[in-house]
Design goal:
The chain has about 375 residues and is α+β, with helices and mostly antiparallel strands. It is built from 11 helices and 12 strands. Strands 1, 2, 3, 4, 5, 6, 7 and 8 form an 8-stranded mixed sheet that branches. It has a 4-stranded antiparallel sheet with strand order 10-11-9-12, with helices on both faces. A hairpin with a 6-residue loop joins strand 4 and strand 5. The longest helix is centred in the C-terminal third of the chain and has 24 residues. The chain is globular. The chain starts with a strand and ends in a 12-residue tail after the last strand.
Length: about 375
């Protein structure tokens, strides 16, 4: 049996802008996980997960090419991740096998509601690592990221891939999104002999992922209790911003890049005050984008989360697409974080017991 876990994530800054190629974001991996276990099977395989209404899904192989095929017309992140890894295995001369794959998640609450911690990215990364381990396919972190991104794009192509980078590289992650048009053109060629292997080993234009030094600040996370749909929000915000004022959207992108440049300098200089100032600036930019697009990013509960954090000497903002889900607070060592979290709870905001998760990078 192969067992692999991948962490959830939170956006710190750069949301919405990072969806555009070449734009930056900062994320963290957190210490809640999705675990994928793979066990050898015969004649057919199963995918077992609470994410499925029927709890499990049986899969077979197409006679003509040995590619995974599920019982019905069905595609999700797990199925897509299995397919891309197995294509790499085929290109390396490997033989396909059947296996059972079981998914367990810590990224929801006790009632099974998602907390906005990147379950889709975590399950994709964990599946890529587990299936590669099952076949003995060696992958460094960058290859895992690329395969997971290709698998994710096959299901939901609107994302930036930042959440996948955080789940793959862990810790504090600086991320620059790749050239989407180039990637789309190259993906169409991946079914050529060794096409996927060549794509994964190539340098991708604009893509940059690097682990950042941890700032001298404490991260606290609050959940509003209102799940939100990231793909829907991103699509609606982009459509609304373009429809109302392209110039304002371009200004938002420029402002986000300037903010992230200064945030990176704060990381490098170990400047907590500068870091906190840029978090406040990023929140202001997102509020402007919300007004331009007509889509609510910072809900009333997220605004209350921010106000409470500010009352306790911290800086705070929504995390990710907003519209609900989580907000983050960055606290100096002098901040009474216990009092901050207690005030959140009194306001109906659940303080999540989360820490930044880091494991050693896997390099070529």
């Amino acid at each position: 049996m192969i067992s692999v876990s991948a962490p959830g994530k939170l956006y710190i800054a750069g949301e919405y802008a990072v969806v555009e190629p070449g734009h930056h974001a900062v994320l963290v991996a957190i210490d809640r996980f999705i675990t994928v276990r793979v066990t050898l099977a015969e004649h057919a395989g199963r995918i077992i997960s609470d994410l499925y209404a029927a709890r499990s899904l049986t899969w077979h192989r197409r006679l003509e090419d040995d590619v995974l095929e599920v019982e019905e017309q069905f595609d999700d992140y797990v199925v897509s991740a299995i397919r891309v890894v197995e294509q790499m295995v085929r290109e390396a001369g490997g033989t396909m096998q059947f296996f059972d794959l079981e998914v367990s998640s810590e990224l929801g609450d006790d009632n099974g509601r998602k907390l906005g911690l990147g379950s889709s990215s975590a399950v994709t990364v964990a599946t890529v690592r587990a299936v590669a381990g099952f076949y003995g396919l060696p992958l460094d972190d960058l290859a895992v990221y690329k395969l997971a991104l290709l698998a994710s794009y096959a299901v939901q192509p609107i994302g930036s891939g930042g959440d996948i980078a955080a789940s793959t590289f862990t810790g504090w992650v600086g991320y620059t999104s790749p050239d989407r048009d180039w990637l789309r053109e190259e993906t169409e060629k991946k079914n050529a002999p060794d096409g996927l292997t060549r794509l994964v080993t190539r340098q991708w234009p604009l893509l940059e992922i690097r682990r950042l030094p941890a700032p001298d600040l404490r991260l606290r996370v609050g959940w509003t209790g209102a799940p939100a749909s990231t793909p829907g929000l991103v699509a609606n915000v982009q459509a609304g911003a373009h429809r109302s004022d392209d110039a304002a959207y371009a200004a938002f992108l420029r402002g986000s890049e300037d903010c992230l440049d200064h945030l990176m300098c704060a990381f490098e200089d170990n400047d907590p005050t500068g870091f906190m100032h840029q978090i406040e600036e990023n929140r202001r930019l997102l509020l402007d984008l919300s007004r331009t697009s007509g889509i609510t990013i910072e809900t009333l509960q997220l605004r209350r989360l921010v106000e409470i954090a500010q009352e306790h000497g911290a800086v705070a903002k929504s995390s990710g697409a907003g519209g609900g889900d989580c907000g983050i607070a960055l606290c100096s060592p002098e901040t009474n974080t216990a009092a901050l979290c207690a005030a959140w709870e009194q306001a109906g905001i659940q303080a999540l017991d989360l820490s930044v998760h880091v494991y050693p990078e896997v390099t070529p």
